[in-house]
């Protein structure tokens, strides 16, 4: 399971949520890899840039990581009632066709056939819930099966300890349940 947040902020609530989900997935018996998108800076998607230079190296690195995972756990910040620009830009670059001589060159290859669990955390009262339908639609269009259950954490600044651990038991139970569901779905995919 590939676990990441659509936030670049060092102390992001969504990164805390993603790290907690990764740990819960491991406790459920899954192999879970947490990545920080801030470690893979890529330019804003631009068709002319792609035509001139192809896919940026960090986008290629991310593509390879995505190709090696069966499932996703995504923590999405809510920016203006939608997904963050970082998350959308990452999806846009990884959904481009790439000629690299390494198997399926389709932009759908990093996505198609995967299962995903969606989460959001926000200090506000809605917990980022307004972004999740947009993310669900984007991922479904790319061939990802998005689980019906999702987690939104309102007042998330109160849900985590300073070390990032979940202190709100209701939140922990919800995130654990989602991580377990993704782990089970990924196991069924592997057959």
Number of helices: 6
Radius of gyration, in angstroms, nearest whole number: 16 Å
Task: Tell me the major beta sheet.
Answer: 5 strands, parallel
Q: What separation lies between the terminal Cα atoms?
A: 15 Å
Mean pLDDT: 94
The ordered string of helix (H) and strand (E) elements is EHEHHEHEHEH
Class from secondary-structure proportions? alpha/beta
Query: What order do the strands of the largest sheet run in, or round the barrel if closed?
Result: 2-1-3-4-5
C-alpha geometry: globular
Helix content estimate? 25-40%
- Strand tally is 5
Model regions low in confidence, pLDDT < 50 over at least 5 residues: none
Percentage of β-strand residues? 5-15%
Task: Characterise the protein shown here.
The chain is of the alpha/beta class and 191 residues long. The protein contains 6 helices and 5 strands. The protein has a 5-stranded parallel sheet with strand order 2-1-3-4-5, with helices on both faces.
């Amino acid at each position: 399971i590939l676990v990441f947040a659509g936030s670049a902020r060092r102390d992001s609530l969504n990164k805390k949520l993603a790290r907690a989900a990764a740990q819960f997935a491991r406790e459920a018996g899954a192999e879970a890899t947490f990545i920080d998108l801030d470690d893979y800076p890529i330019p804003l998607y631009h068709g002319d840039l792609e035509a001139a230079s192809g896919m940026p190296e960090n986008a290629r690195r991310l593509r390879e990581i995505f190709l090696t995972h069966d499932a996703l756990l995504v923590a999405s910040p809510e920016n203006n009632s939608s997904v963050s620009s970082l998350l959308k830009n990452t999806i846009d670059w990884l959904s481009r066709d790439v000629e690299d001589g390494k198997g399926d060159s389709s932009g759908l290859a990093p996505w198609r056939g995967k299962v995903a669990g969606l989460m959001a955390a926000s200090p506000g009262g809605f917990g980022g819930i307004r972004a999740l339908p947009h993310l669900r639609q984007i991922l479904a269009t790319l061939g990802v099966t998005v689980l019906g259950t999702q987690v939104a954490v309102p007042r998330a600044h109160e849900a985590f300890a300073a070390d990032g651990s979940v202190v709100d038991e209701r939140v922990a139970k919800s995130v654990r349940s989602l991580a377990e569901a993704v782990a089970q779905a990924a196991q069924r995919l592997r057959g």
